[in-house]
Design a protein that fits this description.
GO terms for molecular function: pyridoxal phosphate binding. By secondary structure, the protein is an alpha/beta fold. Helix content is 49%, strand content 14%. Helix 19 (408-416) links the parallel strand 13 and strand 14.
Length: 737
């Protein structure tokens, strides 16, 4: 068996002589001593007895990078090909492969790994090592596996220049590209850390990236969350200190009433890293981005990959998940309605329930509270109903929605999507009441404490106030830009504008976060319907609820007057001034208005422009686009289209978020298409729309949902927070007791 341990220098240094040397250096050159000591301590504490195990395809640079890291850390460097396999076999790797063939080679290679042992070393695996399960299980126990993720086109170019003509698996009829694609599944299975490596990146830079990634892996303290109101109230800051991703997913809302944000901001991708994702699939992009946003101590990369595949693997009707379609001129549609419930909410709510189930303690039951203005309801019900049966027993959900403030099809969806652990409750009020009531319930320590003590049940939130809801939205905004690059519409680095129908400010905030992570978005166009409070705010800096009443429109998902995620954006542009954010939102709560300082309004207007759309213009846009292109917009996308037409300057492409499928708003669509008589039965309306043979076709999931009877009914309650609390307690008793 091979045993390689940290070597000792030939010249022995006794403890006394070492102390004497240190003392002389410290007295003569104190600055140099501190620097050397910090360097030694950092290197040795980084590695300890663990190995750094470099993994990746042939040509990824594992050997060269390993040597550089070994020099930096002053530790042994082991190349599996040169130092283990060839030593064991007394022949070159290529000779062995030619001698025994592909399958036997993998087995012999795996046996050699099983006999190998090392500690405190940098180890460069062969490109085929990860294909042997037992061998990799053995290696993984000894250290941190780092995947050097290099785009296939770069690997193929490197191997060609190196004149490599034989790798494991290459045979007549099997291309090098096919082999590299096949091996990805094995690399993804084993790595702890992924390091993106572009085409021209120097080995020294890759080595630094590896060391930075290992430091991040070993120190979860680097990625904590704070409240947008930290330091802004009399509440002790320690009450919300040191929150990690798993904490904020579970807790949802901070104890001081603020929203959680990353204390050190979001990770930044280099241009080369983004360009390496141009040819990636949507799920591959999602994993890379989310790995950077979620610390592996909260969710390991392998588990995260499993969750992402579950969320997006089979639940979306389009293989591209979030395709970008050219509409007209320089306008492109980001189609976000191919999920099971036909709205952009599916991107977060097919993923978040699984993140939540993984992060929560196994010793407590959880009731998730949601307020919806329409699309969130069916999406969250569907998402939580897809949990494993064991998770359903300890996780339940109640969805509050305005009983008369959603479309008939949306209501039918919410009723039909009810399951044994997920229920809908109609409230005789509007969305703003539902959202405010949930916030009040969360901050009522007497009630939440009572539920914990009496029923062993904690409350959690799945609204966009939950940080985890925003992350999947960052992914699709980044992916849309990369798709335009991939299609040859733009080159990477060229700017685009974004136009989003906006109510609660979450979707447009996620686009802003995508820019912070390195996506070149120039301007954000915030599109409102007749509930145009955000338009007024962005133009004037005055957020004023006084005298405003919510108007029911054809685009109910943006029928919102209190935009929760605006708080996160203001916290960002105010340089994380929690005291100011607290003051603004306390004033909004108590007096119904606030006004931004002039400098903050200037910052806001550098990013955002805003406009609003009347009901008549919304319907006219649907009709116009259909008659000229054969494409049917939903009502929310039509709002964005109208505003984009008015505000874009046509100097760069504009991506319009198409947030829902038109099938969900059939009566309004039929009216826009100038159908005289409209049957009130939702199923009949969809059948009528399907006769138009329009693009996109009728949503596959909606027809199936409306054909189901579901539970057939739902609870309805008065607009009273105490009544909502009663329903919450009753549902807990029925499900968990």
């Amino acid at each position: 068996m091979f045993h390689i341990f940290r070597y000792q220098p030939l010249r022995l240094i006794t403890q006394n002589s070492l102390s004497s040397m240190c003392l002389k250096l410290m007295l003569s050159r104190p600055v140099a001593f501190v620097q050397i000591w910090k360097s030694w301590f950092s290197s040795h504490s980084l590695l300890g007895k663990k190995n750094i195990i470099l993994m990746g395809p042939p040509g990824a640079g594992k050997t060269t990078v390993g040597r550089i890291i070994g020099q930096k850390l002053d530790c042994p460097v082991i190349d599996i090909d040169d130092d283990v396999l060839e030593t064991t076999w007394n022949m070159s790797v290529s000779e062995k492969l030619q001698d025994v063939g592909y399958e036997e080679f993998l087995e012999e290679e795996g046996k050699a790994l099983l006999k190998f042992s090392a500690s405190g070393s940098v180890i460069s695996l062969s490109g085929s090592n990860p294909m042997h399960v037992a061998g990799m299980q053995h290696m993984k126990k000894s250290g941190i596996v780092v995947y050097l993720d290099v785009p296939a086109r770069v690997i193929m170019s490197r191997l060609k220049s190196m004149e490599v003509d034989r790798i494991v698996g290459l045979s007549p009829g099997v291309s090098l590209k096919d082999i590299l694609q096949f091996r990805k599944q094995f690399y993804k299975r084993w790595f702890d850390i992924r390091v993106l490596c572009g085409g021209d990146i120097a080995a020294e830079v890759v080595a630094e990236k590896v060391l930075d990634a290992v430091k991040r892996y070993q120190d979860s303290e680097l990625e904590t969350f704070i409240s947008t109101r930290s330091g802004g109230t009399g509440r002790s800051m320690e009450e919300d200190s040191h929150k990690y991703f798993s904490d904020v997913v579970t807790q949802g809302l901070a104890l001081d009433g603020g929203l959680f944000v990353p204390e050190r901001g979001l990770p930044k991708f280099t241009a080369e890293e983004w360009q390496g994702l141009i040819e990636a699939t949507y799920t591959e992009r999602a994993q890379v981005i989310l790995e950077r946003c979620i610390h592996p101590a909260d969710i390991p990369a392998s588990k995260l990959a499993e969750i992402i595949e579950t969320a997006y693997g089979e639940n979306f009707s389009c293989s591209k998940i979030a395709p970008v379609r050219h509409l007209a001129g320089n306008q492109f549609l980001l189609e976000l309605f191919h999920g099971p419930t036909a709205s952009f909410k599916d991107f977060a709510l097919q993923l978040v329930p699984h993140l939540f189930a993984y992060c929560i303690p196994k010793t407590c039951n959880y009731l998730v509270l949601v307020a919806t203005s329409g699309d969130t309801g069916s999406a969250v019900l569907d998402g939580f109903s897809r949990l494993h049966d064991t998770d359903k027993q300890r996780i339940a959900l109640v969805n509050f929605f305005p009983e008369d403030g959603v479309s008939p099809i949306q209501k039918s969806q919410m009723i039909a999507c009810q399951k044994e652990n997920a229920w809908s409750v109609g409230v005789k009020s509007d969305f703003d009441f539902c959202q405010t009531a949930i916030k009040q319930i969360f901050t009522d320590s007497d009630f939440t404490g009572f539920l914990t003590v009496e029923y062993g049940t904690a409350l959690a939130a799945a609204n966009s106030i939950n940080w985890a809801r925003l992350l999947p939205q960052i992914v699709y905004h980044a992916s849309a830009y990369l798709d335009l690059v991939h299609q040859g519409i733009i080159s990477f680095g060229s700017p685009v504008d974004i136009c989003i129908p906006t109510g609660n400010f979450g979707n447009i905030l996620a686009a802003f976060y995508a820019k912070m992570m390195g996506i070149p978005i120039r301007k954000y166009i915030c599109a409102s319907n007749e509930n145009n409070i955000l338009t007024d705010f962005i133009r004037t800096g005055v957020y004023d609820l006084r005298g405003r009443k919510l108007i029911s429109t054809f685009s109910p998902a943006v029928d919102i007057l209190k935009s929760s995620n605006l708080e996160r954006y203001l916290h960002l542009i105010a340089n994380e001034d929690g005291q100011l954010v607290t003051q603004l939102f306390n004033q909004l709560e108590n007096q119904g208005h606030f006004q931004l300082r002039k400098d903050l309004l200037g910052k806001l207007q550098q990013d955002l422009v805003a406009g609003w759309c009347s009901e008549e213009d919304c319907l006219a846009a649907i009709h116009s686009v259909y008659t000229t292109t054969g494409y049917i917009l939903d009502t929310h996308t039509a709002v964005a289209k109208v505003v984009a037409d008015r505000l874009q300057d046509r100097t760069c492409p504009i991506i319009i978020s198409s947030t829902a499928h038109y099938s969900k708003f059939a009566p309004a669509i039929l009216r826009a298409l100038r159908i005289a008589e409209i049957n009130q039965n939702p199923l009949s309306q969809l059948h009528l729309l399907s006769s138009y043979s329009a693009l996109p076709p009728i949503h596959w999931g909606l027809l199936e949902t409306l054909k189901k009877t579901g539970n057939g009914n739902h609870h309805v309650c008065a607009a009273d927070t105490s009544v909502l609390m009663f329903h919450i307690e009753t549902l807990i008793q029925n499900h968990f007791m």
